[in-house]
Task: structure prediction
Amino acid sequence: MTNVAQALASAFQHFQAGRLPQAEAQCRQILAIDPRQPDALFFLGLIAHQRGKPDAAIEFIGKAIARNAKSPLYHNVLGLAQRAAGKPGEAIKSYRRALALDPKNVDAHVNLGNALQSKRDLAGAVESFRRAIAIEPGLAEAHFNLGGALLAQNDLAAIDAYRRAIALKPDYAEAYNNLGLVLRKQGQPSEAEAAFRRALALKSGFAEALVNLGNVLAERGNIREAITCLRQALALDPGNAAAHSDLIFNLNFDPKIGPEEQQAERRRWWEAHGKRYAPAATPRLRDPDPERRLRVGYVSANFRSYAATYACGGVLTHHDKTRFEIFCYSDTTLEDELTVRLRQGADHWRETTGMSDEAMAEQIRQDKIDILVDLTGHMVGQRLLVFARKPAPIQMTGWGEPTGTGLATMDYLLGDTVLVPESERRLLAERVIDLPGVLGYWMPETLPEPGTLPALTNGFITFGSFNRRSKLSDGALRSWSRILRAVPNSRLLLKTKGFEDPAQQSGIRAVLAEGGIAPDRVRFLGQGARQAHFEAYREIDLALDPFPHGGGMTALDAVAMGVPVVSLAGQTICSRVAAGCLTALDLAEFIAFDEKAYDHIAVAAVKNLDLLMRLRGELRQRLMSSAIGDSRRYAGAVEAAYRDAWRRACVDATA
Result:
């Protein structure tokens, strides 16, 4: 036994020093003498786990447990191997066995919390991490993990957890990075930026922090620096498909980037991340009957109160169920009442949060989906690597970020003739399907009345824009300065998430001040509740769509509240979303094609109060009775597009 003990000690020393071959050799020598020696079996399992061979680790540690089931260490490490093998449920059982043997095993509490979080049991994860902290309050990693579970629940107590982790470990770059994420969620972008910069100062080459810094810089309107950060992150981590999507999305806001470069970057995404997963051939049609009931799948991380969901919600809730069977693949983590409504309207609801791309693609294949629709594009939460695998014979993208994906496996983009003119379609990977409008307008709530024209009671004109900060380019702000100068005593109301932040306000005021606009002519409002969002439109006479990236649902929200929108249709798809909506509503007189015309239309419109008064009383009805605002009618147009695509595929399949 002394020789065995010495050999085990030697194996452990080799293992700690990273000499895995020598450690393995020692263990096998022991097993040659005693094939059932549990510690030697366990060490072989630990070595296998270290080498990234979880199945072998499970086998060895399982044999060790068969000889000694009372070792909490065995069960704890078995859980690690099981989780690495993609078996979180079995890992949870192993961690709980370890804790039954040793209730104060901090490592097992932390590991259990991580496994529970991977299974979306966030409450259980929080409890596990708090138990670990109660046993060892000075364990910075436990506070960090607690912050992650709270962040996933959108619980702002995550801030305290990360700050405690930093207090215990001042050089904890990952904690600063995650603290920045929570601060950004809380609407404190300047503080978030500082946290990300601190993370990078502590850990050079921290790609994740560079991505986060880039995104928060974009949110603060620093588009060029944001793009630089994202390119640096990709240079460090070229395989990061999500970061590459962030870059693509933020290129939409750069006035120096044209349609050719935008689409070229999308093609680069395909070559770098998606092409390797594409099947050799398009999946065969299941039962190529052109008129049969079709299975349509929708993929989104935002089946909740979210702008893009209101663009397609009418389609989801008004499908003809006799002709279409609806599947929703939901990565939605922050569910709300709208999620419940959409779930009730679907024939099948699949929770896909945490599911791998391949597993999700396989689920779609098993569901025998005929037409798979992406609702996200290159925005946060995209699952484009699922679409790269082509799990459905027909794949489409639309509504979320309808600017093209670049995927050779994406067959169609749902748009309109204004959004993507014929001359630009050659640049896209997808074939464009023209709907009555790129966006539908679904309004499940009761809206407040538009009210009277504010100028009549105020005695001055109020312009407004309720678009995200990243869309408010310096060019747009300079244009708004010119418009305000041309309309004496006029005001500007800006509203979006984060505008409670004085730092956000000062940057915008500075650009406007360069154009001669005094600070007291500009007012800021934060995001607020949805009802308050609509009520704020009662305070403006004319909405100004930003450029080069215009609004979409914000423009339609304005119209629903009786407020016309002036928009500049530029050279890129994202500059023409509002223009497409205005065209569908017969409001083309509010569309400009250069900045001079944009300024002129805005100034001329507010000089005609009779026109603005008339539009305030009629725009909502015009929208709700239109081809994009009548949800049943719009859903019918989308279904007709699906059917046409299916019929074409049937012809090709039988040719």
Summary: The chain is about 55% helix and 10% strand. The chain has a mean pLDDT of 95. The longest strand covers residues 294-300.
